[in-house]
């Protein structure tokens, strides 16, 4: 019996998504397959970007459709970015979500999109199609050797002969890629450089940089103690503030040092007992080599980011302010500075702390704990889960561009001679920034990225202890929404733990992850046997690449662009004596003109959103929809409703505060790490 199959095919609207090539399709079903059919309408330009075309294919009854096999004959401008296809015949319908490239000269199988575990693929053709897809993907996504990633998470192996798969590349962006933003920022600043004096003063001349750029909002407040403390709870690196019961060891501090800085009648001991003393501690920088290099003229350049620490006090107005800073760990040579010291002593101490925070942030909080720990999960998902697998469908949108930006960062920022060598303290010949990343990784476990446990560990979960902590107050509802969403999807397929144990594709996913991606001791379980463990792990991954990355990334321009607020290197050793610093000494400590230029440009680039960014709460819904089952769409809608409620709560709070915290608004959080 001959059946007419109606194919509705949608080409992506992204720039360059359309094709001039001839496209053929073969329908493959449980009863056989059709011959290849040309998808070509007379006097019509098929498969233009954003177009939705309808074609008719006559074939014998193929039973249940398993896949569509598309062949791209190649030629000029041949690559085709296929969003999805929808097929109907005799009252039946099949969906084929894809959202990937069909490259010129290639044939690809697009599997039918009903979410299924391996054991639910009842026909041999389905099982074979899943297996063949994964065999192909494993060749496209090979692991880097263990030697190449020693001390760091596993990563994709790339070379000149095996470049990044096109599906992972940025798609038709003219403005949104970070390299373009860097170039445009540098060009804008350099337009004004002739007006800058040759005798560079970073405290004054920095303002000339912003004649062609937006001025960070913190500029009028940057010297203020309350502003310094505000950045600890809603700045670029808000994961360090910790309630402490005692003054840290080798930090000599007396009540006399703090005279007038605590509430009347309050001693340091009483403030500690009352849970009003908090710590920022960047001890991870201890023993990390700093930039040190002699140029061809024999002049040595050095940079510093000390293993500093800072105590903050919750005063009677329930606001935080810094009360003591030590720029090292040695009580004999590293004095403790307080606001009672000279104006420039105290200002310099705060600037050095921000420099310590910045180096720790860039390599640990940002690069390692979001970008590089996400990459193994991208890898094992692409290598082990076919498109119909529910975990692939759950994760794929959150992994868009992650491999591209990670490889760009390795080559452009972190590599020898890269941008970080130009301006951060831990860069340079001894690769201190890479040692810092490895040190952070050695201490890290995936459970550290779970926010509630992190707040509990640091003693700052309760608003009674730390009243104003916007990062905490926004992160927790988002985590809870994700946990409900991920759990709802996974438990729809894994009704019991035995279902997960019996999922051969997920068990191979786990084996690949623990053998090549992350050691099992960094994961929440020794074996993948419990659905609860999988819910926890995937919630953590999605939270990390969306919420956590947004928190530590998109304030970079606001935080770093006004360089005196948070320099990424200091050009002089931390002061060892009190009462000797002058204003001109501060100017000599902070970055040079060239270093400032790079810091502004990189901060602006890494804070920018791509033109095709997809947000957690996206206008008109997510563009790439992988699930179409009503029960799963209902779970997604419940998730988006929680995000809408959270957005309203964030906006209501921000309307009441002097400095809004908007970076964790659900409509401003990208679904994944795209920059």
UniProtKB/TrEMBL annotation:
The taxonomy runs: Bacteria, Pseudomonadati, Myxococcota, Myxococcia, Myxococcales
Which terms are listed as keywords in the entry? Lipid metabolism, Metal-binding, Oxidoreductase
Record domain Lipoxygenase: where: 115-675
Q: Name one GO molecular function term.
A: oxidoreductase activity, acting on single donors with incorporation of molecular oxygen, incorporation of two atoms of oxygen
Q: What is this protein called?
A: Lipoxygenase
Q: Which residues form the PLAT domain?
A: 3-116
Q: Which domain of life is it from?
A: Bacteria
Q: Which organism is it from?
A: Myxococcus llanfairpwllgwyngyllgogerychwyrndrobwllllantysiliogogogochensis
- Output the SUPFAM superfamilies linked to this UniProt entry: Lipase/lipooxygenase domain (PLAT/LH2 domain), Lipoxigenase
Q: Which GO terms describe its biological process?
A: lipid oxidation
């Amino acid at each position: 019996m001959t059946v007419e199959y109606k194919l509705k095919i949608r080409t992506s609207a992204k720039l360059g998504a359309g094709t001039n090539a001839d496209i053929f399709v073969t329908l493959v079903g449980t009863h056989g397959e059709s011959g290849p059919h040309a998808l070509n309408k007379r006097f019509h330009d098929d498969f233009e970007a954003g177009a939705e075309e309808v074609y008719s294919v006559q074939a014998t009854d193929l039973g249940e459709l398993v896949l569509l096999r598309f062949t791209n004959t190649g030629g000029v401008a041949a690559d085709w970015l296929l969003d999805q296809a929808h097929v109907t015949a005799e009252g039946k319908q099949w969906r084929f979500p894809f959202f990937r490239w069909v490259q010129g000269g290639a044939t690809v199988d697009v599997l039918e999109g009903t979410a299924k575990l391996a054991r639910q693929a009842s026909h041999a053709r389905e099982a074979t199609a899943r297996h063949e897809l994964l065999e192909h993907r494993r060749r496209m996504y090979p692991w880097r050797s263990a030697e190449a990633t020693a001390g760091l998470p596993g990563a994709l192996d790339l070379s000149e002969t095996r470049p990044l798969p096109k599906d992972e590349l940025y798609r038709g962006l003219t403005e949104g890629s970070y390299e373009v933003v860097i170039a445009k920022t540098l060009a804008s600043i350099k337009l004004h450089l002739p007006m800058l004096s040759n005798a560079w003063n970073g405290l004054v001349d920095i303002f000339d940089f912003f004649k062609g750029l937006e001025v960070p909002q913190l500029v009028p407040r940057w010297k203020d103690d309350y502003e310094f403390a505000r950045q600890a709870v809603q700045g670029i690196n808000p994961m360090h503030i910790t309630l402490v019961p005692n003054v840290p060891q080798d930090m000599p501090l007396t009540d006399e040092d703090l005279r007038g800085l605590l509430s009347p009648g309050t001693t340091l001991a009483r403030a500690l007992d009352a849970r009003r003393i908090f710590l920022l501690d960047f001890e991870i920088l201890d023993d990390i080599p700093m930039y040190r290099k002699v140029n061809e003229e024999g002049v040595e350049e050095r940079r510093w980011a000390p293993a500093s620490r800072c105590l903050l006090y919750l005063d009677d107005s329930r606001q935080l302010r810094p009360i003591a800073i030590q720029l090292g760990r040695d009580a004999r040579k590293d004095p403790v500075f307080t606001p009672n010291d000279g104006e420039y002593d105290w200002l310099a101490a705060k600037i050095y702390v921000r420099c310590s925070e910045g180096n720790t942030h860039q390599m640990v909080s940002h690069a390692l704990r979001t970008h590089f720990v996400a990459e193994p999960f991208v890898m094992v998902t692409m290598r082990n889960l076919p498109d119909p697998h529910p975990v692939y469908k759950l994760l794929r949108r959150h992994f868009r561009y992650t491999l591209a930006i990670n490889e760009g960062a390795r080559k452009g920022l972190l590599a020898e001679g890269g941008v970080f060598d130009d301006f951060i303290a831990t860069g340079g010949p001894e690769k201190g920034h890479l040692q810092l990343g490895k040190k952070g990784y050695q201490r890290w476990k995936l459970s550290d990225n779970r926010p509630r446990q992190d707040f509990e560990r640091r003693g700052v979960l309760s608003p009674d202890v730390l009243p104003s902590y916007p990062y905490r107050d926004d992160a927790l509802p988002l985590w809870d929404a994700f946990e409900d969403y991920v759990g709802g999807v996974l438990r729809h397929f894994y009704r019991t733990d035995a279902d997960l144990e019996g999922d051969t594709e997920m068990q191979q996913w786990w084996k690949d992850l623990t053998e090549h991606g992350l050691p099992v001791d960094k994961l929440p379980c020794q074996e993948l046997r419990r659905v609860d463990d999988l819910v926890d792990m995937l919630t953590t991954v999605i939270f990390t690449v969306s919420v956590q990355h947004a928190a530590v990334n998109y304030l970079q321009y606001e935080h770093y662009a006004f360089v005196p607020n948070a320099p990424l290197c200091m050009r002089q050793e931390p002061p060892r004596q009190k009462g000797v610093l002058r204003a001109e000494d501060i100017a000599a400590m902070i970055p040079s003109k060239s270093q400032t230029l790079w810091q502004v440009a990189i901060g602006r680039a890494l804070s920018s959103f791509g033109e095709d960014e997809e947000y957690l709460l996206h206008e008109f819904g997510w563009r790439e929809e992988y699930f179409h089952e009503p029960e799963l769409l209902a779970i997604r809608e419940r998730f988006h409703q929680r995000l809408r409620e959270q957005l309203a709560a964030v906006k209501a709070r921000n309307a009441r505060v002097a400095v809004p915290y908007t970076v964790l608004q659900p409509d401003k959080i990208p679904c994944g790490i795209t920059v």
